[in-house]
Every structure is written in C-alpha cells, then in structure tokens.
Amino acid sequence: MMKCMLCGAPATIFITEMKNGKTTQKFLCENCARKIENNSYRQSRAQERNVKEAVCPKCKTRLSEFLKTGFLGCPDCYTAFGSTMSSLVPKIQGRSRHIPRKNTVKMATSKEEMIQMLKAEMEQASKEMRYDDADRIYKQLKSLGGV
Q1: pLDDT score of 105 more than 50
Q2: What is the pTM of this model?
Q3: Is 26 strand, coil or helix?
C-alpha cells in the first residue's frame, strides 16, 4: 500500500502534474490532498485579484460581467476580451470564429425584454433537445432575476 508523501498515512489519491514538459506524481491521503487543493485555490484567487480587469473601451462592459451573464455589450468586446474570447468561442460554437445566431436579430432594449427573449430561446432549445443550451440560458435567466 502506498503512503502519503506528506504525512505517511495510507495514500488514497494519486495526482499526476505536468509543468514545463516534466511529469511529477504525488501520492496523498485525503486530508493532505484537500489542504493542497485549498492552498492552490487561495493562491489562484489572490493572483486573480491582482490582475487588472479587462473593460471594453466602447461599451464599458467588464470581463467579469461577461463571464457571469454570457452577454457581450458590443462587437468591440471581442477585441477587448481577446484571449478569453479566443479560448471560449471554439468551446461554445465548435469553431474558432464567431458565428452570429440567426434568431438573435432583435436586440432587447430592456431587462424585461431580455428575460422574455431568453425564456423563448430556452423553450426552443428544450423542444429541440439541446439541453446544454437550455441549461446555459437558464443560468443567464437566473443571473438576471428572470427565474
């Protein structure tokens, strides 16, 4: 039986990490793994706070707002949030280039209109059995207080 590399207790968790092309392996007990995970989370959150948040110069939408709601303020947001957008668009659309939706020609002018549009879009996604899309839309509705 493997022992925890930190405290010597029976190891129940095996972690493989790759950094700079080098692979390291760790054998840990649950308590030590939890401590390492919590420390890593705290360090990443501290680094996050020190990073200046990206803001679109045209519409003043903040990156944190986009990440929370999934809505961009204007086409210039793609440039302002460049690195984030270039990694998200392929995950969302399956392509590296943004493809506008056909059914989003009408732009909401108020929060209430946005909620109504999202509810209709969620219903359509459910009918078409696009449950991942429906769940994403539900989360957007929830963040807007429409649920």
Answers
A1: no
A2: 0.33
A3: strand
